[in-house]
Amino acid sequence: MKKLEIPKNKLSGHVALIVGIGFAHMQFSPDTAVAATGDAILGAELYNQYCVRCHGDSAIGLAKFNGELERLQFMLDGGSTYMPDFMGMFTDEETNNIHAFLTSNAE
After folding, report:
1. H-state helical runs in 25-89
2. pTM of the full predicted structure?
3. Is residue 46 within 8 Å of residue 82, measured between CB atoms?
């Protein structure tokens, strides 16, 4: 029987697509939502330095973030094929600050 071979570059693309689709459909329970504990002003500075170039002033594409710290951390740690990987770039405090800015901006 002939063995089906998928080129590695296509395989990794398919894996990324499947992971992306899975993430897009992930549901975090309301119990996992965490109140913003960071400094929204410092978070705005970080957002303007690292995020505004792609997401703009109105946080385009962040509707699914829904104020959930876990989801923000997942995305910053390379959880999206459409975003740069910021893993290890932000301290927990800086991530909390970005979270505080995004949640205060959504209200």
Report:
1. 40-50, 52-55, 69-76
2. 0.64
3. no
Q: C-alpha angle 99/17/66, rounded to 5°? A: 25
CATH number for the domain whose boundaries are 8-106: 1.10.760.10
Q: How far apart are CA 24 and CA 16, in angstroms?
A: 12
* Interacting residues of 40 by C-beta distance below 8 A, sequence separation 6+: 97, 100, 101, 103, 104, 105
Euclidean distance between the first and the last CA atom of the chain, given in angstroms as a whole number: 60
Alpha-carbon gap, residue 42 to 71, rounded angstroms: 20
CA 45 to CA 64: how far, in whole Å? Answer: 22
Q: Is 102 exposed, middle or buried (0-12, 13-18, 19+ CB in 10 A)?
A: buried
Domain residues of the chain, as ranges? 8-106
Residues 45-88 pLDDT 10s: 999 999 999 999 888 888 777 889 999 999 899 888 788 889 99
